[in-house]
Amino acid sequence: MREVSLTEIFQHRIAQKYITRSGLAHAIAVAYHAFQLAAQNEVDVDTATKAGFLHDIGHYTWYKNGKWDYELYRQNDIHAIKGAERAHKLLIRLGENPVKAKEIALAILFHTDSFLPGGEVVRTPLQSIIKLADEKDEEPGGAHHYRTVEYDRALRSLKQLDEKINLYYSKS
Ligand SMILES: [Fe+2]
């Protein structure tokens, strides 16, 4: 049973504000990759898809004179931490199952090593899937954050993905 759909998440003002900031097209692409990887690896597809869609919701804008400043970003970025918290708050508000909301938040927290001072994280299968799904959509120079998609098209893609998830559950 799914408590919350991707479409509902997308339409919430918190998602509208922060997911568009780091690239809506990227968020949708990662959600699709996460669905596929989860289905292949017998990980819960709903949890994975939501974590994929929300993984970059914690980004702050590190601009200096109108240009993205990688040095500032590298020094100060905590998007995985911020994203975990922001996604969790949004999901709980929408009525998500708290166990699932926690799993999604942790998958977002561990989707990148960039905030860690050193050393690798030992990831659960779900957490590995979100990292991999993100890497599958990466483009040189962070170009994946700048691909755009119109609201209506984004909504249609997410509705389709919601239907794929529902179909997946009805078959299993
Ligand atoms: Fe990403």
TrEMBL record:
SMART domains: HDc. Coiled coil: none annotated. SUPFAM superfamilies: HD-domain/PDEase-like. Pfam families: HD. Residues 23-139 form the HD domain. This is HD domain-containing protein. It comes from Robertmurraya mangrovi.
